[in-house]
Amino acid sequence: LTYLALVSTLFLPMSVHLAGGAQAKPANPAPTAPASKGVDLTGVPIVINDPAQRVAPYSLAIIRSSNSEIKGPQLDSWLTRATQKGEPEPYLVLAKSRVLCFNRDFKGGLRLAQKANTMRPGDAIFLIGLGRAYATLDQEDEALRCYHQALNSKTLSAFSAEMLSNCFIELDALENAYEAGTKGLKLKDPSSSLRYRTADVAKNLGRFKEAEVLINEVFKGGTNSIEIWNLYSEIERGLKNWKEVIVACDKVLAFKQPLGRKKMIEAQAHKADAYQQMGDYKTAVKEWTIIINRLPLNQTYRRNRAQCYNKLGDKAAEAADLAAMKKFDQSLITD
Fold first, then answer.
1. What is the full per-residue pLDDT of the chain (335 aa) written as tens digits?
2. Half-sphere exposure of 186 (CA within 13 A, CB side)
3. Residues linked to residue 149 through DSSP beta bridges, in sequence order
4. Helix, strand, or coil here: 103?
5. DSSP string covering 13-77
6. Which residues contact 42 (CB under 8 A, 6 or more apart)?
7. Fewer beta carbons within 10 Å, N or C terminal of the chain?
8. Which residues partner with 109 through β-bridges?
9. Do the beta carbons of residue 325 and residue 303 sit within 8 Å?
10. Could you give phi then psi for residue 266, rounded to 5 degrees?
């Protein structure tokens, strides 16, 4: 993940062109489709698609947290609340393991994760917690062993499957991440973020058709964000559905964020490339020019515009772009 950030789950009415030219009807809010995260009035993250949420919400919030999402003081606050509320000891022990790992006491975290697993043997969440503790010590084989046990556990829920998919992604085990995601989607109350994440993994595996089905299910749930439209664009690029790529890129660009941001740059470039791939070279030139004006030293964008000028028979403009590229290349040469 890697890279992979949790998708926003804003249930808003929208209309979106789906692959193949069909247009989705505006989606109504879906109260039965739980978000994978949120906050209640006391500030605790809500994870409403796992039974443990009812008995150990604060511990579970710590257990599911990633270092990029959570700050140390917040973890300490949740741990204090979990202790004060008398949450079940196995969850408290696993939560303490996560806090130790966050504070870089990896061996201490592993010891507590092992202890928690003796209290709840075979439980998917606890196996995942143990695997994460091993992963912090770069013991990847042991981590994967725990993750595979969790994948085959009868206690696997949609929530724990999402955690598990994330863990497999962190170890670049994309096939396993996809398996965990698809398995979780068959369980009760899978979240929009699990569908999004599984679609992203499918895309990275080159399974664009499967990814397209999943991302369209996210749209049907009424979820809307720049990340989703960006992923939809990448999927449709893989399928060479250029008209749909343009629709998706326009949606991304409509968020009105600075063009210098990575997703906005990618959307503008993908839009220009889509017009070029369709043979609409005149429009492609306009779109390439927008991004070249922002990033004049990018040789790929300028080369693509030169190719469009060539197709249009504008030899002077093509020569100007090629000359600018040559001048830039020469500026990189030093004695």
1. 332 332 222 222 222 333 333 333 323 222 222 233 543 334 444 445 677 888 899 999 899 887 666 667 888 889 999 999 999 999 999 999 999 999 999 999 999 999 999 999 999 999 999 999 999 999 999 999 999 999 999 999 999 999 999 999 999 999 999 999 999 999 988 888 899 999 999 999 999 999 999 999 999 877 778 889 999 999 999 999 999 999 999 999 998 777 558 889 999 999 999 999 999 999 999 999 999 999 998 999 999 999 999 999 999 999 999 999 988 766 655 54
2. 6
3. none
4. coil
5. ----BPTTS-BPPPPPP-TTS--S--B-TTSPBP-TTSGGGGT-HHHHHHHH--TTT--HHHHHH
6. none
7. C
8. none
9. yes
10. -60, -40
CA–CA gap between residue 229 and residue 15 (Å, rounded): 12
Are the beta carbons of 138 and 163 closer than 8 angstroms?
no
Residue 251, C-beta contacts closer than 8 angstroms, at least 6 positions apart: 16, 229, 232
Contact criterion met (CB below 8 Å) for 109 and 130? no
> In 3D, which of 178, 200, 198 has the Cα closest to residue 190?
198
Q: What's the CA gap between 185 and 161, in Å, rounded?
A: 8
Q: Within 13 Å and on the Cβ side, how many CA atoms surround 129?
A: 38
Query: Which DSSP string do the residues of 211-249 spell out, in sequence order?
Result: HHHHHHHHHHTTB--HHHHHHHHHHHHHTT-HHHHHHHH
B/e letters for 21-49, b = 16+ CB within 10 Å, e = fewer, are: eeeeeebeeeeebbbbbeeeeeebbbbbb
Specify the 3-state DSSP secondary structure of 256.
coil
Q: How far is C-alpha 132 from the chain's CA centre?
A: 19
Residues facing residue 39 across a β-bridge: 45
CA angle 251, 177, 181 (to 5 degrees): 65
Alpha-carbon gap, residue 305 to 147, rounded angstroms:
48
Give dist(CA 48, CA 54) in Å, integer.
8
- Is residue 282 within 8 Å of residue 312, measured between CB atoms? yes
